[in-house]
Amino acid sequence: MLLRGTISYTLPTSTLRLRTTYTYPQNVAVSAQSTSSKFSISDQDLESRGFVLRRTVEDLNLDHLNSVFVAVGFPKRDPVKIRVALKNTDALLWVEYSKTQRPVAFARATGDGVFNAIIWDVVVDPSFQGIGLGKAVMERLVEELVGKGICNIALYSEPRVLGFYRPLGFVADPDGIRGMVYSRKQKYNK
Ligand SMILES: CC(C)(COP(=O)(O)OP(=O)(O)OC[C@H]1O[C@@H](n2cnc3c(N)ncnc32)[C@H](O)[C@@H]1OP(=O)(O)O)[C@@H](O)C(=O)NCCC(=O)NCCS
After folding, report:
1. Counting atoms of ligand 1 from 1, which one is nearest the CA of 40?
2. Domain membership of residue 128 as a residue range
């Protein structure tokens, strides 16, 4: 379906899609000392708090990542399948806590590289939630995708998280477009 000059396709009802004209939130979630950052918190400020941003799977311990998934209530997945999924992922971002060298925040996106992307697995370790890490990861992932010229960025949102995504520029059912999904329940622990 062609929607206002952008390529669009149907997604599940609860799917949110990013407005093509993305504007970064102006409000600052975590008091960022650097005013030059286009993000709510700069890379430097994150580092000064012991958080290192990473954009590759190198050094990412998949068992530790799985632990974060489980801690937030996601099903535990086969690390071999996670590795395949990450290999087929176009963009990913995770935050390492220097003290433990473990991942504490993560998000990734798949897509066709030019028109569309879907964001998956947005998680923040419960011990580190509410301090701006989720926003920090999402802002950077979206910026990377938009920088590649991708106009449609979609994601699935649980109802309780809609309020997290909205200020990041995501809207539900844009222009009344409703998503549809064919889904077979998977046994994730295999
Ligand atoms: C949702 C999640 C990724 C948010 O990460 P976080 O690091 O706790 O969020 P942040 O601290 O970056 O919050 C950024 C902003 O979003 C708001 N926010 C966070 N979670 C929210 C929620 N569930 N509903 C509404 N607003 C929320 C914060 O209040 C903050 O607002 P502010 O910028 O005005 O101060 C995290 O809570 C999480 O991993 N949840 C469990 C897994 C999950 O549900 N993932 C999403 C799958 S759809």
Report:
1. 33
2. 2-24+37-176
